[in-house]
């Protein structure tokens, strides 16, 4: 089995490629020219290089292809107001946990997630959230995640940045 390492800005292109694998499996749509890859690359390149990053990735390198990644887990730190269950203002959010299809069932996602959770713990973060597919749920449950009762909602603002609110 490989080992997880913290990604650097030099891994940004491979992380974007793996994100494409992930997105293609959960919601196949869009095109290669829709611009998300460039934006994701710039975000990763900038945030992974920050001296005190609030976004990190842990990766496992492919043994058979130098420079290519087999798996990754990306996480960010959100600043929120504390509450009774968690008085801290920082919370972790995990996204884009993905393993190349031909590299699966080798424990790579677990290695990446374990390293990411340790990074959160070292920062003093007590609450970590994620969304999961049915297939990913056994891994996350084995790491201590539980389903919540809190419903999620989303609003997409128009590109002008101003939401139209009706009363």
What does the secondary structure layout of this molecule look like, with pairings?
Layout (H helix, E strand, L loop, with lengths): L4 E2 L5 H15 L9 H13 L6 E7 L7 E11 L10 E10 L8 H15 L5 E3 L6 H6 L25
Parallel strand pairs: 4-5
Antiparallel strand pairs: 1-2, 2-3, 3-4
Helix pairs in contact: 1-2
Task: Please supply descriptive tags for the structure shown above.
167 residues; alpha+beta; 5-stranded mixed sheet; 4 helices; 5 strands; 29% helix
Give structural notes.
The structure is a single chain. The protein is an alpha+beta fold and about 170 residues long. Helix content is about 30%, strand content about 20%. Strands 1-2-3-4-5 form a five-stranded mixed β-sheet, with helices on both faces. Helix 3 (about 110-120) links the parallel strand 4 (about 90-100) and strand 5 (about 130). Helix 1 (about 10-25) crosses helix 2 (about 35-50). The longest helix is centred in the first third of the chain and has 15 residues, at about 10-25. It is globular and about 50 Å long. It starts with a strand and ends in a 25-residue tail after the last helix. The model has no long low-confidence stretch (mean pLDDT about 90).
- Measure the end-to-end span: 57 Å
Counted by DSSP, the helix tally is 4
Largest sheet: 5 strands, mixed
Order of helices and strands: EHHEEEHEH
Strand arrangement in the largest pleated sheet:
1-2-3-4-5
SS-derived structural category: alpha+beta
Q: What is the average per-residue confidence, as pLDDT, rounded to a whole number?
A: 90
* Percent range of helical residues: 25-40%
Gyration radius from CA atoms, angstroms: 17 Å
Low-confidence stretches: none
Proportion of strand residues:
15-25%
